[in-house]
Amino acid sequence: MTETIQSRLAAQGITLPQAAAAAANYVPFVRMGNLLQTSGQLPLDGGAVAVSGKVGGPVSLEDGQRAAKFCAINILAQAQAALDGDLEKIGRLLKLTVFVASEPSFTEQHKVANGASDFLVEILGEKGRHARSAVGVPALPLDAAVEIEALFEIA
């Protein structure tokens, strides 16, 4: 039997949450032809921000990576909603843009982003290998430590 995205999620004990609704005048995702763009996803767990504050200050690198993984889980929830529940329609994750709320002297945003990248490659397999940008910012909505948007190709 071929391993599926859902079976890999289940093996890690992960159940995708309900996709978060837009919090303002935007949509959570846009599907255009064979592309799917998600809006930025925060590290929500149970509807609340799981990791808040600035990485390199009160938030450790490891907690930043944990926040990035929560963002990635929420990205998959948005993809699932956009694809009528069928994550197997994902052809490839093309790009992640990772925003890290960080102290001015913190320069390891790329390592924070690994929390999402590593997880998505584990779950999506080879089609999870992606291009990426990791950017340090002074603040994010709701004082979240990380926010990530994704661009997928739909098979």
UniProtKB/TrEMBL annotation:
Residues 7-146 form the Endoribonuclease L-PSP/chorismate mutase-like domain. Gene3D superfamilies: RutC-like (3.30.1330.40). It comes from the Bacteria. Coiled coil: none annotated. Pfam families: YjgF_endoribonc. This is RidA family protein.
